[in-house]
Design a protein that fits this description.
Layout: H1 2-7, H2 10-36, H3 40-65, H4 70-91, H5 102-118, H6 124-142, H7 149-170, H8 175-182, H9 184-197
Helix pairs in contact: 2-3, 2-7, 3-4, 4-5, 5-6, 6-7, 8-9
Length: about 200
């Protein structure tokens, strides 16, 4: 099994990431719909599976973005895992302090967006959208619920994450550029032009 994973192309692994991301979207929406209908136990079970899917997405993102910047990819993964842990504790009413998980997922989205912007294997527009979504989630935390901006922020967050999910699912990543960025020589080549532009 591990040998098969090692021989898969990065494009295919990115498509798997997109598939798991889609699973997260579907289970998150289904969990919300079930809970809103008063079936809290069933909604909680589906929410648990959506959190498990997001943990998998987080780990797959770490693999995907570590060639860009291993430290930032690790920090993003840790933030997302903390957000998932907070969701799980809240789901079972075990959280010692009530913290909105967007306090973790907002910075996570910003870091993923930055890593996409710095990458050579994904379109930069996806990175820009993710940065805006992350900033939006942080603004969302500071706004009163009745504020008219809340709906726009939610739409922006959904569009950014859905666009990234669909791109990964349909297109994957550029294998050659990912491999080039994963090598030390590729990282050096990627930095030189940027220094020249300063």
């Amino acid at each position: 099994m591990m040998n098969q994973m090692a021989t898969m192309s990065t494009r295919f692994k990115a498509r798997i990431t997109g598939g798991v991301y889609l699973l997260y979207f579907l289970t998150a929406v289904l969990g919300k719909l079930i809970t809103d209908r008063g079936l809290v136990v069933y909604g909680s079970a589906v929410s648990l599976s959506s959190t498990a899917a997001y943990i998998a997405v987080t780990l797959l993102f770490y693999y995907l973005f570590r060639p860009v910047n291993k430290s930032l990819a690790l920090l993003a993964a840790l933030l997302s895992l903390l957000g998932c842990a907070n969701d799980l504790l809240s789901l079972f009413h075990l959280a010692p302090v009530q913290v909105n998980s967007l306090a973790f997922f907002g910075p996570f989205d910003i870091l993923i967006g930055y890593l996409i912007l710095r990458s050579t294997f994904l379109p930069r527009i996806l990175g820009g959208l993710m940065v805006l979504a992350g900033l939006g989630w942080l603004i969302f935390l500071a706004l009163p619920p009745a504020n008219g901006l809340v709906a726009y922020i939610e739409v922006l967050g959904f569009v950014a994450e859905a666009a990234l999910m669909l791109w990964l699912l349909v297109m994957g990543v550029n294998d050659q550029r990912w491999e080039a960025q994963a090598t030390p020589a590729g990282k050096a080549e990627h930095r030189v032009p940027e220094r020249a532009n300063i």
